Amino acid sequence: MRGSSFLLVVVFVLSTTSLALAAPFYLCTRVLGASTTKQWFDAGPFEAILGTERWERLTVGGRGQIQNWADPNFFGWNEPVASPCTSPVDRVLIDVGALSGSNITTANTVAAANNARAKYGITVVLLQPLLGGPNHTVCGTGRDAVRSTVLHPTADQAINGAVAQDPRNQWGNDALVSSCLDFSDSIGHLTPAGALDVSTRLGTWY
Hints:
The chain is of the alpha/beta class. Helix content is 42%, strand content 12%. It is built from seven helices and five strands. A five-stranded parallel sheet has the order 2-1-3-4-5, sandwiched between helices. 38% of the residues are buried.
């Protein structure tokens, strides 16, 4: 009986230790991205779920693309932070996307992550692809196809490469919309309802 109790205690301690190692607590995650990042971050539920004191964003309109974050001299690094944390940044989430697939590369993704480490003195960088369609489908057809859903697989590949190169690069959420109706244009901007839905699901996931 005593042996069984001891075994249960050991299993419990090991289990809780594993959970702690798998999910460390971060005081401040800074989100880097572009205009669509701003849409879902500012929609409301994301920070309401996770805590406004623990998440902040640094987005640069149409310029917050991965090839620009790969440049250590990109002016975006010095832009003001929105909804700042109450503690210094200790983790970064990069929204990996661009208007051209040729810019969404493993090399650019790795460079962007390394720049974040150099600038903020952090270790872990989460990588999240630009928004894909429901179940990874492409929304729209031909010229009307939503660009972010077309380029989503390219971003997935770039992130896979970055994670394989450096264990400090980690997968974030494989961001997908619930419906193609969540997009407001062929670039991949969100409708208000779409931003609300993505914000809720990302907040719940993280």
